Amino acid sequence: MQVVDSVIGLRTRVKTWRSQNQIIAFVPTMGNLHQGHLSLVQKARELADKVVVSIFVNPLQFNDKSDLTNYPRTLQEDIHLLTELDCDLVFTPDDTVMYPQGMSLQTSVHVPGMDDKLCGLGRPGHFDGVATVVTKLFNMVQPDIAVFGEKDYQQLLLIRQLVHDLNIPVDIVGAPTHRESSGLAMSSRNNRLSDEERTQAALLHQQLQAIKAALENGETDLDALLNSAQTQLQENGFEPEYLELRKAQDLMLYQAGEKTAVRILIAARLGSVRLIDNILCDLA
């Protein structure tokens, strides 16, 4: 496995693979890798001849400076894990490589229809930062395939719209959320939970499952269903940011009785940690 931190080094390796007609899959990450990330790399390995993973903590997508400061950096441990997975290349740029003119002078990419809902409301500017860095990374790596996790479902749909609207020739593959034994969605943020909070956090997935079961059993009073779940979360120490039912294909609000695939999405704070999760409920 090769580790490069420059665009020239990255493109030199990719150019060689291209000349050999190799299929290239890409997994962008911010490091502090856990089994969820590694499952994306394994999926990429199944789909391609060569796998590139990037590790870059993108300051453009953090609207909370303390969140950026507290984000764990574990580069050497991450590289070791990727070596064991037979990853072919790890791209580790810093801010000067990604934003050589500084972030204030960086051309930005905006995907419409994401700022007015879910994480777009709670994290102003976040999705512009995601769209900008992903566009740059796609241009740098020039992969055939890119793999993203479904845990960040709104982000996944944003990336799909991005490549469609800008005619970027990358096939976007969504991979299932990887969970701890308790059902808690794996996230780098989980490391900031205390042991007690980690146990409490499993309630997020339990509530999503309960809502799914109620919908499948014909429940139509959606407000009562969601309000009950939020009350239970608040009684167990959470500060819910949103808990919503959205159509899976476009994140439009779901109306009771519609025959369609639904995503049940949640964001909530537990202590100082913001957690997100979602599950699919197919009512088609």
How would you describe this structure to a colleague?
- The chain is α/β, with parallel strands linked by helices and 284 residues long.
- It has two domains: 174 residues, 3-Layer(aba) Sandwich (Rossmann fold); 95 residues, 2-Layer Sandwich (Pantoate--beta-alanine Ligase, Chain: A,domain 2), CATH 3.30.1300.10.
- Helix content is 40%, strand content 20%.
- A six-stranded parallel beta sheet has the order 1-4-3-2-5-6, with helices on both faces. Strands 7-8-9 form a three-stranded antiparallel beta sheet, with helices on one face.
- β2, α2 and β3 form a beta-alpha-beta unit.
- α7 packs across α8.
- The mean pLDDT is 96.
Draw up the topology in text.
Layout: E1 2-4, H1 7-19, E2 24-29, H2 35-47, E3 50-55, H3 65-70, H4 75-84, E4 89-91, H5 95-98, H6 119-122, H7 126-141, E5 145-149, H8 153-165, E6 171-175, H9 195-216, H10 222-235, E7 238-247, E8 261-270, E9 273-282
Parallel strand pairs: 1-4, 2-3, 2-5, 3-4, 5-6
Antiparallel strand pairs: 7-8, 8-9
Helix pairs in contact: 7-8, 9-10
